[in-house]
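protien #1 (seq + structre)
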Amino acid sequence: MSEIVKELQITAGSIENIIHKHLHTSKVSSRWLPQNLSLHHQLQCVASCQELLDLYTSDKEKFRGRLVTGAEMWIHHWYPESKLESMQWKHVESTPPKKFKPQPLASKVIATIFWDSEGLLLIDHLPSKKTITGQYYAELTFKLHDAIKQKRRGKLSLGVWLLHHNSPVHRSLVAQQAIRDCGSVQLNHPAYSPDLTLSDYYLFRNLKCHLHGTRFAGNESLEAVVEAWFEGHDREFFFQEINSSAEKWQKCIDVAGDYIAK
């Protein structure tokens, strides 16, 4: 900026006015993305989104009635408040509030959460010292089938459309066989596209905001709060995200399979 002021012999304010108001230019930081998508992956994303969009637009009520979605998430025993969340009003002469550097996050557990347009179907908390394998996920698939049978009368008769991301565990032979044994149809989720995962950028984000600033003594208290949070939301909360999914798929198609803006 100083070099431009010296060269043009005008004030810094005038330069900023030209840059912002006349050239319509602003300085922005880079956006972090999960992966540098190849042309092949972008084409796959477009094809998957178009397929999902066609299913949705052909019969919206049928789509909402048959769709079941789910994903895994890490749930920590403690989420410290961010600087933005801890902001508070103060008088110009009062001492600013202090916020100490947070300690490393405490223990955490993996929760696999399945839901549909009517609400929560199943939460599974992975036992400590275990990992999610193809066999474990296959057993979860049968548990999900039982949960749907108990909570959603008639949904199994309609036929379940399962939408989950393309992790190796989900694609394993034993998990795929379990999905078929349950009579479910697996929809194609766009590859390498967490921005299109229904759970990640809606349910999980809201859940983490709810947990921020709370420290839990153990898994049991954490799991109880998580389940209570899901049960405390009505059908409209889940319905809105399913209903807005078409907009995200269309955005992905419009940007030729690239990551969509938040």
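ok now protien #2
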Amino acid sequence: MKVAIWLAALVAAPALAQVPPAELGQRFVPAPWWMREPVVASLGEVRTEVPANRAAFSANFGAVERDVAAASNAAAKKVRELDQSLRALGPERVRLTTTFQTRPLYDQYRQKDGSLVDNQRADKIESYEVTAVLQVAVRDIAVLERAYRTVVAAKPTSIAPVNFSLEPDNAIKTWLQVEAAKDAARRARLSAEASGGRLGAPKIVDPSGGVCTTQVFAGWPSYVGGGSPPTDVAAPNDMVVTASRTMSMAAPAPPAPSLDKMAESVQVTLQPPLEQLQASACVVYALLP
């Protein structure tokens, strides 16, 4: 249990004297003001798991033509209908980025051992391969499978694996911070009772947890880490992170009929993984006899 009980007596000093700053290497350093009387410094640490609410993947569409402009147009044509279908889902749900890669294809000749080698000279270019790369960033997991099926129906050259991530909103961040403060109070109360004392009023509340990791007995400033594992807490159902709490809940427009019909035959299941969130809070309480 990461709770340190620090007992310190008030050192005689003038009432208006300023505490000098600590210097590294000093044998003795001033204790912080909150250690002038018995205290309990409690570090609350909590963690929870919520589903990932972001996803991203990309798809490649290649075309080969004798002319570079023709190859670019052919590759762009392959993603045009798909681009329109995905944009119909709404920019708050799906965001798209399209880039193009161009690669010359050279005339080849065969060596004596029979292997083929590209004749990489400007006057030996036979054709051009242009790849349109469509990057799909899904901000609403509810439409992930629909977007993925639509991409598959467009018959891309290749599709990259789906990467999931978590972007917690302010509501769950605030809730988790409150739970960390509650955990600090629980640990402090148990330690005070176990040591035969009583818990007094809080003197310091530090959401960053930095005060509790300061080891004043080792020399100021010095910090220590590690300790007991965080307390597991379950997020309330109404706080499980979704893509966005401000998005429009209207039904998205259906994609183009041709792609829509083809996408219906694609059967995929994409399950977002659970991501871990942690928070800590340091609360220094007075220790009463």
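The domain at 54-165 is CATH 3.30.70.120 (Alpha-Beta Plaits).
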